Amino acid sequence: MAALEEAFGEVIQRQITDDASFTKWKASAARREVVAFVTRLNNSCVNKPNLSIDAAPLQIRKLMDALRAIAKGCDQYLPTPGEARRYGSPMFRDWHAWLVTTAPGLLASLGSDSAELAARLAASFGDRTRIDYGTGHEAAFVVFLLGCFKLQLINDDAIDSGAVVCGCFAEYVRTCRVVQRCFGLEPAGSKGVWALDDYQLLPFLFGCSQLADEEHGFGDEDTGLLTVNAVALSQRSMFYECLAFVDEQTGQTPLDVAAPILFNLTMQPWRVNARRLLRLFDEEVLGQKPV
Question: Which of 49, 126, 193, 278 could cysteine-pair with 133, CB 3.0–4.6 Å?
Fold first, then answer.
């Protein structure tokens, strides 16, 4: 978050700096509000497929357009073949600086001049100092959406209809994948986000709820291989979009070896998985001291 404080020091500052402030956060109303908001988002997408931009309500369509513009911005900062680097591409820092300056204009198209909201959006795609991305950045996007709701840029119907999750959040994850692939971002924290995915958690939660009443099972317990065409099913659920991404990244390695916790989800009903993942978000994302 240091890079964001440098750019938005007057409107966004790190509040969790030591054990005492972290303990305060864990018992805070703010943490409970974030959990309640994620729970509401999760409930909104039960048995609902991903939403195309053409079918989305106007404000959600504008948010999705803004996210697509963020993804498109990567084209201006493509890494140079053979560039000197140890991990992620240093070009990410230039792209992130572009994002910081571009975010206010993107939000202006939604009717917002909030500098804090712009900072929250810029916080949602990785750390430009460490050139990494993790579930803390994903949580920053949740806080951005909560801010949009509080500022009345999105309304109750957009949330409870599932449009925010199935349209906007799904588009956010796709944008993150573009950024992650383009710049080779390092996974923040321990690699593998509990062996689900190198970067994300919430699309697995929301994706399970999208499939709540469908027959569970996507892998063969004997071979550890997928038994579904995740790419073909990706429009149905964010879970399958993520599954396709993980399968692409792991190559020939059986899924039960490459992502054992993810593979274990094949053995439980979707609703059970969603409850477990919501608890994981609360305990392991919001309940862990940030780096």
Answer: 126
The pTM score is 0.93
Query: Which is nearest to 123 in space by CA: 104, 107, 140, 102?
Result: 140
Name residue 126's amino acid. G
pLDDT of residue 192: 47
For residue 226, give the 3-state DSSP assignment. Answer: strand
Unique residue bearing structure tokens 């109303």? 29
- Are the beta carbons of 222 and 169 closer than 8 angstroms? no
Rounded CA gap, 118 and 123, in Å? 9
Cα–Cα distance measured from residue 177 to residue 171, given in angstroms and rounded to the nearest whole number: 10
What amino acid occupies position 13?
Q
Strand residues in the chain grouped as ranges (E): 132-133, 186-187
Which pLDDT belongs to residue 15? 83
Cβ-contact 274, 42 below 8 angstroms = yes
Provide the pLDDT confidence category of residue 195 given band limits of 50, 70 and 90. low
